[in-house]
Amino acid sequence: MIRYPYIAVVALVLAGCVAQSTQIQHLQLSAGDAQIPKGDSPIIVLDGIEIPDYLLRDELLHRESAVALRYEAAKRWAEPLDLGIQRVLGRRLKASLNTQRVILFPDAPSTPADWQLRVTITHFEATGSVARIAAEGRWEQKTKDMVIVESVVFEDSRSLSSGDGEDIALAMSQLLWSFADELTAAVTDKPGLPTNALSDEKLIEVETDINTRTQLRR
User: Fold this and answer.
1) Which of 134, 146, 129 is nearest to 193 (CA)?
2) Can you list the positions of beta strands (E) in 14-98?
3) Coil, helix or strand at residue 155
4) pLDDT tens by residue, 101-128
5) Which of 9, 47, 122, 185 can pair with 134 through a Cys bridge, CB separation 3.0 to 4.6 Å?
6) How far apart, in whole angstroms, are the C-alpha atoms of residue 41 and residue 205?
7) Tens digit of pLDDT for each residue in 148-161?
8) What are phi and psi of 208, to 5 degrees?
9) CA-to-CA distance for 23 and 131, rounded, in angstroms?
């Protein structure tokens, strides 16, 4: 007779644990309706995405101030955030450059790449009623005696309509789409090295800042 209440209590505790686990919402960044590419050039290698350590957790991050962060345990990324960013950027670049050959690190192309892209994310989070991103993309082409570098500095934000998990994930996805568009614009019509480059010019660097829409050649 004593055992029955004990068993009932254990059952209620287990039921509570199950109910609590089902409340976790898993989120994924989306590449949207990017079209399937048909071309096979240019060949691009997209390196692993560099992001701050505080973004490497699976809980959804809210920035409350310059020095205060809050992680929402009930809302979690379904994949490591750096891999999700790499996947979305790769898919968007494939569509915008119409090339099937966007190779995601650690995979390597079978032939030398036309461009290698390195992406650094410094901010990628929800802040109050907006989602925001701060990032830089660095395109590189290399030959025996020359390196071409095209840098894209990107900052943007998008208003949140509700602030729930799906709303934040969609807004952050859309920020990546805009970033991919800017990355594409930096190398559009530049599939290979310029034929008129001077043989003694070891480095050509172009920086694009979307805030001013200007380019600086170094």
Assistant:
1) 146
2) 25-27, 44-46, 59-63, 69-77
3) strand
4) 999 998 888 888 999 999 999 999 999 8
5) 122
6) 23
7) 899 999 999 999 99
8) -110, 125
9) 23
